[in-house]
Design brief:
Length: 717
């Protein structure tokens, strides 16, 4: 046995060797040798002669898949055998073949176990053979990979591909097989980094060998195709020998780089065959002895291959460099996408603090309606109104205000328009549409469903306030002289404000949904878009949801508390508008009465004047029955107080429940997910939220290693 690695001692390959050590071969193909030719032309045998590695040959009809032999420098010596799934392999098949792995210690062991190994590989790939009759295919694009590792291994990749064939055999090969094999071979020889060894047996006519035209097609300048003639020992006729010789001498220019002639091991396991030197003794004889010695035998071929590999490598460098560069770019991008590492407590904290910072800066801008500061707000804002939070809240508050004005009272007041303003209607329609468009996480959040309502409909007030007041008065009057008791006003006010709790709950519900949806979107934006980011988003959300719900409840509670204060306490106000209103409505009554009794005075005065007799005027107040008078008074007081109380109430609900408890107060739900919150997490909580899946850690390590390798490789080149 000759030793194997000797092919690569050339200095020019030192760089490739270094790349190899940097594992670059893992990322992109480096220069490689591939033997192509017809079935049984001696490809496998040739590669064995050149590399000393026993290729499977002669045992079966032919090679059924590509075999790639690579060398890798490693402190330990071993040979590892794996299968690379073909490009179109199904997930199932991929799993199966990738599950195969076998290791041997030496070439000798490999040789001894080869038949057995191949049998297992065939079963794994599903190749049909005598020993594996259940196999379902004759050829496969799966690649058998044999990696020879050791401290002295030089760079070299050698590929043995199935032989191409033209005629199909019934029950064995199909035209589909034929095309598949041809494609497989083409894929290898297409690569400008591949040195093509066109293997031709001496005992056939080279004119019939398809491989030469195929090689020419992909290696137009012929600078990486070597012709190798095998089986010279099988040529018996003198004229045939002469014809082979003229080929080797370059007298028939069919290949740029010319032909080499080698004698491989024959199929008969002849004792003579065992030794290369003995086999090559034949070249000492006529007519072979007349051939130039640098074209004869394995040693000469190896030397030529070595030079050629050097040249091809030089040529391949720019392309390799470009590929390394773009690969490095991709790797760096992938690394950025993975985000910062999050293994240690500190890294996890930094990671979350970063997200919380982004979250809070969006919150700040949202509360200030500073929508140009962050692209968060420009993303489909029409479809997602909750992004522009404060605007939505203001709209909702307008809805509340006008719904309150128009529908909050149980009875219409006297003279109150039963039709709300057109502007209000339009405004409210838009707000309700906005709220309806919120994706609302209510369905996915049962806690929220217990706090809020989602029915926005409101009942119109009833008519007949005068009758109702009268009825009330009749039922509850005491011994009062010409007036009514304060309890009376309390009672009618409570009745008149019966819808306040429902309206307020609707208002708070809209605001809570808006805030909640905003938080969800904002969190998503702060975390990022990748799958890993989405995991983080969900974990943070899970981490804050309980406290969020508590804060929503607090806001709702505050609002309901305010309702209760207004409705359950004795009506009271210091607001001078109350008196103003009462007096104004009295004035209106007097004016109404007076205008009914007025007449027009002319007196040569250019301006018309309405005049009322003083006696008539006094009747404006005295003309009523006591009950009538009190009824009117109750109505005046109720209306005046209702106006003052509802304005006060609306303001306070907004200021306290919505603004303070939901938006800008220090304990609002928007302020929850903050740096403070992150810093308060203990180690276990931190790890649960920010810790990364092991596969991401591995992925990052691999990418980092790859990026380092690539950077180093670029430096080498
Ligand atoms: P492949 O199908 O192209 O890989 O061809 P193989 O390498 O399997 O060789 C086919 C047969 O030819 C095997 O039995 C080999 O031993 C035999 N063979 C290959 N090269 C030579 C040679 O130079 N001389 C002789 N006598 N037999 C050879
Ligand atoms: Mg073969």
């Amino acid at each position: 046995m000759h030793d194997s690695g000797a092919l690569m001692s050339n200095d020019r390959l030192f760089k490739i060797d270094q790349l190899r050590e940097r594992n670059i071969g893992k990322y992109l193909p480096l220069p490689q040798l591939v033997a192509v030719g017809d079935q049984s032309s001696g490809k496998s045998s040739l590669l064995e002669s050149v590399t000393g590695i026993p290729f499977p040959h002669g045992q079966e009809l032919c090679t059924r898949y590509a075999t790639q032999i690579t060398h890798r420098r490693d402190t330990n010596s071993f040979i590892s055998i794996t299968i690379i799934p073909g490009p179109q392999a199904s997930a199932d098949h991929k799993n199966r073949v990738e599950g195969y792995h076998y290791e041997v210690e030496s070439t000798a062991q490999l040789q001894a176990e080869f038949p057995d190994i191949l049998n297992k590989v065939n079963i794994c790939m599903g190749i049909r053979t005598d020993k594996n009759p259940d196999g379902d295919k004759t050829f496969t694009t799966d690649v058998l990979k044999i990696e020879k590792c050791g401290p002295d291994e030089d760079y070299l990749t050698v590929i043995d591909v199935p032989g191409i064939f033209r005629t199909t055999t019934d029950g064995v090969t199909t035209t589909k097989d034929r095309d598949m094999v041809k494609n497989m071979v083409t894929r290898y020889i297409k690569d400008s980094r591949t040195i093509i060894l066109a293997v031709l047996p001496c005992n056939v006519d080279i004119a019939t060998q398809e491989i030469l035209s195929l090689a020419e097609e992909y290696d137009k300048t012929g600078q990486r195709t070597l012709g190798v003639l095998t089986k010279p020992d099988l040529v018996k006729e003198r004229s045939a020998k002469a014809s082979v010789c003229s080929l080797v001498m370059g007298e028939r220019k069919t290949l740029n780089l010319g032909y080499y002639i080698v004698r491989n091991r024959g199929g008969d396991d002849d004792e003579n065959d065992a030794d290369l030197e003995e086999r090559e003794d034949m070249f000492q004889q006529e007519p072979w002895s007349r051939l130039p010695q640098d074209r004869v035998g394995v040693k000469a071929l190896r030397e030529r291959l070595q030079d050629l590999l050097g040249e091809i490598t030089d040529l391949a460098f720019p392309k390799i460099r470009a590929e390394l560069r773009s690969m490095l770019l991709e790797t760096d991008e992938a690394l950025v996408k993975l985000g910062p590492p999050r293994q240690t407590e500190r890294q996890q904290q930094q990671y979350l603090v970063g997200i919380a910072g982004k979250f809070q800066s969006i919150v700040r801008a949202a509360l200030d309606a500073d929508y140009s500061s962050n692209k968060f707000f420009s993303e489909d804002s029409a479809e997602r109104p909750e992004r522009r939070l404060i605007t939505l809240i203001v709209n909702i508050t307008h809805w509340f205000n006008s719904a309150f004005r128009n529908t909050s009272q149980t009875f219409y007041f006297k003279g109150q328009s039963e039709k709300p303003q057109d502007d209000d209607i339009k405004d409210n329609q838009n707000t309700l549409e906005d709220v309806g468009r919120l994706p609302s996480y209510v369905s996915g959040c049962p806690h929220l469903a217990n706090i809020i309502v989602t029915n926005w409909s409101t009942d119109d007030p009833k008519t007949g306030i005068v009758a109702w007041i009268e009825e009330n008065y009749r039922r509850s009057r005491g011994v009062e002289l010409g007036t009514f008791s304060p309890a009376m006003l309390s009672g009618v006010f409570r009745e008149q404000s019966r819808k306040w709790p429902t309206l307020t709950q609707q208002y708070l519900s809209m605001a809570i949904i808006a805030v909640h949806d905003f938080i969800a979107l904002c969190l998503q934006a702060a975390c990022g878009e990748t799958d890993a980011d989405k995991i983080t988003t969900n974990r943070i959300f899970d981490g804050v949801i309980n406290e969020l719900v508590i804060r929503y409840e607090r806001a709702m509670g505050q609002a309901m508390h305010l309702v209760e204060l207004e409705r359950e306490r004795k009506p009271y106000t210091l607001n001078h508008y109350f008196n103003d209103n009462v007096q104004k409505s009295r004035g209106i009554q007097v004016k109404n009465y007076a205008s009914r009794h007025a007449f027009t005075e002319m007196h040569g005065n250019p301006n018309y004047r309405q005049v009322v007799a003083i006696n008539d005027l006094s009747k404006a107040i005295t003309d009523k029955s006591n009950a009538e008078h009190i009824r009117d008074e109750i109505h005046e007081n109720l209306q005046a107080y209702y106006q003052v109380a509802s304005k006060r109430f609306i303001d306070y609900v907004y200021l306290q429940a919505v603004d303070h408890h939901l938006l800008s107060g220090p304990d609002s739900p928007l302020r929850l997910f903050s740096e403070r919150w992150v810093l308060d997490l203990n180690a276990a909580q931190l790890a649960a939220i920010a810790g990364e899946n092991r596969h991401i850690t591995t992925q990052r390590q691999n990418l980092k290693m790859k990026a380092d390798d690539l950077r180093e490789a670029l430096k080498i080149l």
